[in-house]
Amino acid sequence: MIGNRMKPIVAAAAGLLALGMFGAAGAQMKSALTADEIEAVLSDAGLSPQMTTDAATGAPVANGKAGNVSFWVRALDCSGTPKSCQTLMFFANFDLGRSASADDYRIMNKFNDKQVFGRAYVLEGRQEVGVDYVIELTGGVSMDNLTSNIARWSDVITAFMDNFAAEQKGAS
Predict the structure, then answer these.
(1) Percent of the chain clearing pLDDT 70 (strictly above)
(2) Which fold has domain 31-171?
(3) pLDDT at residue 62 tops 90
(4) Contact (Cβ atoms closer than 8 angstroms) between residue 26 and residue 142
(5) 32: helix, strand or coil
(6) Helix pair 35-44, 143-171: axis angle to 10 deg
(7) What CA–CA distance (Å, rounded) separates 16 from 9?
(8) Coil, helix or strand for 20?
(9) In contact, 96 and 113? CB cutoff 8 Å
(10) Three-class SS of residue 120?
(11) How do strand 84-95 and strand 128-136 relate by DSSP bridges?
């Protein structure tokens, strides 16, 4: 039981905690995005999205460019009309021009061992390797957080390409 003298202190602490969590003006929180919102945040990040819809699910899909690299964003965990989606999966695939080798698997594993953001993979039977990156909105994230996470995608692609090139050179 909190004594009468402690109640104002507890109330003040709760107010400061709320202020710290939501900012003085109540930062906008998002727990899902529509196709229009996905297009807007990708455009704001300079990623040139072209929006389409997944034929099977009706979920938004974006094709974008980070520098000279084409990539896709699949919206997942969608509901409602219009579709509002809680998960964004970014991915970029790269043509090897040959079947994947044991070295390619080693390079992917090494990247995954040291990289905090992004996950590298081999697409067997397609002669491709790739990298993906997931942004989860469930429970709500601030627009600042969402913006910084989307901006990180270009860094993930660059880290993947630099790592792959350096490791390929070392394997030769």
Answers:
(1) 83
(2) Yope Regulator; Chain: A, (3.30.1460)
(3) yes
(4) no
(5) coil
(6) 60
(7) 11
(8) helix
(9) no
(10) strand
(11) antiparallel
